[in-house]
Design goal:
The protein is an alpha/beta fold. Helices cover about 40% and strands about 20% of the residues. It contains 25 helices and 30 strands.
Amino acid sequence: MPRSLDPLFSPRSIAVIGASRRPGTIGWQIVDNLLRHGFEGSVYPVNPSARSVHSVPAWRSVREIPGEVDLAIIVVPKELVLQVVDECGEKGVSAIVVISAGFREVGGKGEEREARLMERVRRYGMRLVGPNCMGVLNTAEDVRMNATFAPTMPPAGPVSFLSQSGALGVTILDYAAEYGIGIRSFVSVGNKPDVSSNDVLEYWEADPGTRVILMYLETFGNPRHFTRIARRVARKKPIIVVKSGRTLAGARAASSHTGSLSGKDSAADALLAQCGVLRADTVEEVFDLAMAFGVSPLPAGNRVAIVTNAGGPGIIIADACEGEGLQVAEFSPETLERLHKVFPEEASVRNPVDMVASATAESYRVALEIVLEDPGVDAAIAAFVPPLGIRQSDVAQAIVAAHEGHRDTPILAVLMGRDGLPEGRAELQAAGIPAYIFPESAARALGAMDRHRRWVERPVQAPTRFPVEREEVRQIIEGARSKGRSRLLEHEAYRVLEGYGIPVVRHGLVRSEDEAVQVAAEIDGPVVLKVVSADIVHKTELGGVVLELEGEEEVRSGWTRLQAAISEGAPDAAIEGILVAEYRTRGRELILGMNTDPSFGPVLMFGLGGIYVETFRDVAFRLPPVTEMEAGELIREIRSFPILEGVRGEEGVCLDSVTQAIQRLSQLVLDHPALESLDVNPFLATPGGGVALDARIALVQ
């Protein structure tokens, strides 16, 4: 599959169909870019009304071109695209890029037009980028192809970039040149009915010239396929994604807790986290990360040395580093002694190192060399605020000199003055030192590098498959659906959980007062009575739940009250029975849940449960399947995790039981696609284990 994209990224010949002689048109710009930037292959302008374009002979049709054509760039009105594609297919063109718009993105006839386009692509065995895109680019020395209408050719480098937005692609290529970010290849995928982000990701995985992958995504296409590919690729190369739609209105409403708390962006966050993909919130952050990953080695750990000539920037960087999960390094006594010897008394040599405003360019070289030799330092950030008489370019040279002897340790620079910034940044970038204007940008980039390091170093783990009662659970679900029910009754939900090894409270379904007394005696402790009926959804409001009953007398009294509430509030309801369940309160109330996202499928949720679940919204998400390690990370992601460990002398809960319950829930929802949503709330966690007190399961209709 990846090799089928060679004609797109490394063609030996290109036909530009719709080439124009009029400057300012897309057909003119693409031919101009191919010729001006030195495409290594043959360029064939196709224009039935012109003898030449850019002094290159033009052809009336792609069929008239002598020899083979690897790639066709199609820039014709939408009504002519299908005819041109037929001509390309008859010619034997391997791949096409359809720049033209007016397809699925406009709906109606556009969707039909795109379907007919794909029928032809499949018939001729071609690969398609677009429609509605801006083209492809490859800066490799043996290719040098700019088959886009972007006005700027970025510098060559190790960063490959995919964009679903043509306009954003133009902007980022333009800024890549300004920021000194070297681009290996670029593709604007447009509507992507054929070549998708997953295809391109696999292609770049095998490309030795691509070291960093950037992606602007509006949709994932096949999220599960993306997950499988990205997990593998992210262990070899960092993947940085800007995913739009964090606040997209119209997320599907759901009646369950999990549904109301999750949404499309929660699913996207979960997917990216599980793949080791770094999510950037803004285009600015993309540049910050690309600058660092494109030139700098990964840190060996998270301990950072900060060197500056002003206290303020040092404090800001220290705060930002802590926010990114980095640690401001503790210098060894030897390092402190060496710094004391070379800096004046008013300087602060503890990390951050504040050399004060009198520090020279040479001071930066000396300080950096000393701190980088400390075995407790994994990376360094050097920040410079220009005082009178000190040039940024001189400081940049000093930072480069210090880097010469420590090329395996990342150094990031912050040049906060405008004077001399372009020259200083260019020199630093060329030496493998990313340079920023603002302190937070450097800390953000270094934090992302450390997160990627941890992802690469983490062990590969497969999800556990537990022995379960899959067939019995399937029969429960299908039995409810055959009766036209959209929800399982509570005792059925309990049995589903039990079938997958998720502990539930002791309980029994009864149909008489005497049976209720008998089950309560067997439980031997406080119990709760709940009415079980498909016709009664909101039991509590009806009075269909009676809590904390202990002993025969209280159970009989509770039974009487429950029957009276049913008779008054739901006299026509079909009652399946009364659930007698153990009543427990001591422990930490958690929620385990699942909701089905229309794009991503089942999404798991874990968090603080009980009555506060939608008040504090302290929850985290993952996509199944989850491994034991991922379940543990999910638990530690919520803000309330310290409470689960135990605070103020309290004993913590049994985290192993919670971890296993999450894994078993993951297996349950993947084994049974008929489950639409599921809430275990609360799941009561104690030092001795965990148990489900209540469960709601909705079914796909």
